[in-house]
Amino acid sequence: MNSNQKTSPSPRPFLDGLEAYVPGEQPRGGGWVKLNTNEFPYPAAPQVLEAIRREAADTVRIYPDPTSTALREKLAQRNGVEPDQILVGNGSDEILRLIAHAFLGPDRPLAMVLPTYTLYEVLASQFGAETRIHKLIDLERLPDSIYKGDWTACFLPAPNAQIGTAFPIRQLERLANAGGLLVLDGAYIDFAPGYDPLKELKDHPAVIHTRTFSKSFGLAGVRVGCAIGPKPLIAALHKLRDSYNVNRLSQAAAIGALEGADYYAARCAEIIESRKMMTRELEKRGFVVPESHGNFVFARRADAPALYEKLKARKILVRYFRHSGLEGGMRITIGTPEENQALLDGIDAIGTEC
Ligand SMILES: Cc1ncc(COP(=O)(O)O)c(C=O)c1O
User: CB-side exposure of 250: number of CA atoms within 13 Å?
Assistant: First the structure.
């Protein structure tokens, strides 16, 4: 048969109805003030660049360590657990997908709050699981309905994504004992000093903690994250990952980042100070800004959708979500002092445009 006459075979039917996750925009070309995807605004530590250079010089022709042993050892030490309690992934998104694969499916529902990280719902649908959404009335209080525990897994960022508020540890403890698996997504944990769900729930048999190098270690571009949890659950996740899921350069970069931990801690402290300043400045400009514990703030004002577009026209990019509960505001990543000032200047200039 002529290849032009053959039709493409159909993928599995559930894909017709599946909506893909939409990541934040990565604009092309230079000149942008990019405050839309919660990246780290400062350069990499010298240890990171040196580690990548060293690794790239000789060994890129050799497969990487399949289980990221050296990195797991360092992470175990940092978090006070054993290396067998850690799985390293290609970003924490991969870790979340592995957990979804292992736990969710038809009759194995996911619970999540709203608003939260919008990827969770997509992962549930990829594995045919129903998502049970628990809307937040109070941003710092888990709704009573979630403690019913009628879910197989609950994915919860601590601090929460998009708004940046944090649920008290006692509520997380209660949730851990309420249902199936509790996944505490710690993507923003290093911007919340003194808030430590891992310490309180380290050895809980039903809790997996996730971590990423994308935010507080500035490695979003090389993709490294990890899960920390009970050994049997970590062993199950290992069975589902690609044999070589984290490449050599990424493993080396993450080890370099941990060696430069003091540098990153100092930069995170600056980001926290800038976050306080931005909260105050945005409030002065009529925004409502809940106290954030992440490297971003969520700023509500009636003109948010139009303002987002006008800022973008000036090459200042923040994140605007059309999702329920988020339409009235913009999520703004904390950048360098210059970037933060450019955003405030942009808002002021637009304010006088009309
Ligand atoms: C709550 C949360 N979890 C996980 C991620 C993904 O992190 P990674 O880059 O490690 O895949 C993000 C990214 O924005 C996030 O906001």
Answer: 26
Contacts of 38 by beta carbon, 8 Å cutoff, 6+ apart: 188, 214, 215, 294, 295, 296, 331, 333
C-alpha to C-alpha distance for 272 and 269, rounded to whole angstroms: 5
Note if the pTM is more than 0.70: yes
Q: What is the pLDDT of residue 58?
A: 80
Q: What tokens were used for 70?
A: 């050296």
Q: Which of 214, 229, 259 is the last residue of a domain?
A: 259
Question: How confident is the model over 145-165, as pLDDT tens digits?
Answer: 999 989 999 999 999 999 999
> How many angstroms does the Cα of residue 92 sit away from the middle of ligand 1?
6
Same domain, 54 and 94: yes
Cβ within 8 Å of residue 149, ≥6 positions away: 178, 179, 180
* C-beta 329 within 6 A of ligand 1: no
Does 110 map to a domain? yes
Query: Is residue 109 assigned to a domain?
Result: yes
Q: Is the CB of 225 under 6 A from ligand 1?
A: yes
What CATH number should be reported for the domain holding residue 80?
Answer: 3.40.640.10
pLDDT at 354: 46
